[in-house]
Write a structure and sequence with these properties.
The structure is a homodimer. Chain A is of the alpha+beta class. Chain A is 26% helix and 20% strand. The longest helix of chain A has 17 residues. At the A-B interface, α8 of A face α8 of B.
Amino acid sequence: MKDLYPSRKNDQPEILDRKDPVIHTERSQDDQAPLSKEQLDSYEKNGFLQIENFFSKEEVVNMQKAIFELQDANRDVTSDKVIREPESEDIRSIFHVHNDDNYFKEVAYDQRIMDIVNHLLGSDVYIHQSRINYKPGFKGKEFDWHSDFETWHTEDGMPRMRAVSLSIALSDNYTFNGPLMLIPGSQNYYVSCVGATPEDNYKESLKKQKFGVPDEDSLRWLTEQGGGISVPTGKAGSITLFESNTMHGSTSNMTPYPRNNLFMVYNSVENALVEPFSGSKPRPEYIAVREGIRTLTSAK
Amino acid sequence: MKDLYPSRKNDQPEILDRKDPVIHTERSQDDQAPLSKEQLDSYEKNGFLQIENFFSKEEVVNMQKAIFELQDANRDVTSDKVIREPESEDIRSIFHVHNDDNYFKEVAYDQRIMDIVNHLLGSDVYIHQSRINYKPGFKGKEFDWHSDFETWHTEDGMPRMRAVSLSIALSDNYTFNGPLMLIPGSQNYYVSCVGATPEDNYKESLKKQKFGVPDEDSLRWLTEQGGGISVPTGKAGSITLFESNTMHGSTSNMTPYPRNNLFMVYNSVENALVEPFSGSKPRPEYIAVREGIRTLTSAK
């Protein structure tokens, strides 16, 4: 398959135009969408959309309880799916929860979410990746700017920009507790990064990304195009949808306030993974679903 | 002299009450202040005050030009007053600019500033410390929570809480480019820290503070008392005044936007330094003015 979005092939970075729509259902069908025209406009323009109070207080309490129960249950577990802080043994993320845990499977396939992501991706969807992120007070580390799509394309073989990430806030998000920062409009440009991809890069990159890192000039250019940086804040229970190629990152969390979230990536069934464009062997199933597609789609 | 604010003496942290007023001129004389009653109330309650558009656009442009000229002039200079980034050689701060540079001496003794700090400290004042902070885009490092007074008391022998810091914003301050974060109300409590003070601690502590670091329980308690964390934002030319004991810190700056400022500490002439309460030898003059007091006061 032709590589429409080459990266890590050259020794100079390059900015390529996006070759896919941002919303994959025709805008003439807006009236059938579970989102308002304003919400669709905003997602299409900025590459992300926040919806406050998406989940009820009761649902939030249940999800908060569930993530800490799962953290407790994994405290002494040795598993690649359980990512720990580099300088401590605290659990930072647990992957593949939409598959391994019946409760989170239900959340991942919540009908309200499915209606939205089906519309944005213009097809049936499946879950490409899921995880719980624990960003505790004082200890949450920063995560530098990146396009998820760059990694999914290069390391996982995701052909096109036809995926959307969903972050469910399970703590109140302030501007100061290590929030998600996004560059509005950046979904429309693909930063082709320099350097190769080492084998088994994911073992390090989940802690700190060293390859597929956009260069400073491109980041400066993207913020100039987009007119700045956006930091959605909101109470627990709000959700942020962001397009696969939207440039984002997060700072460290020095405050006593935790910042926990549940994170799912929905990919179009028409955009299933092929061989990684880096030429390396595919990353494991818990990071990039290949085998589990059918089962998960039918769970809808 | 009795140590009213002991720190780094015990192996358990402790929170002590403040023993000094926050505003050292009687509030009955508010009508003689160069600040409004609302501004004085806010400073007294929160421990800081931001004033937007304090300097004119022309003044800002001149200051911006001056800080980069001084940075250029110091590029190849080896001096303790020039602090560089740990992982690069970029200049992060230049100290003692109110003394070494005629232009910054004028700024430091600007009559509008002198009127404010004289009122807040209830006496004549002198400059305890001055510096330019360069926090360039992408590279600005985080600085963890601390009370300046804790260090000035312990390492410099500043007896009482009767000093005020002034930060002049020379870049636009957003919530996302490594802003100053303050815990409102924290000026009213003194966190007595654990551990001793090594000799020449300042050589490391200007890059990353390891001693006089408040514990997490105290920080959590302070934010609960203060109802959160404040992040003043504003255009270049705005100023932030903050009380010597107000707990503050700043995150890293991952964005392309720089965050430069000019920083001066005004101390009451009635609060001149004594021997450091740590028992160590005093820090150098460029960090904590001892000898230069008379000259500087008379410059007013």
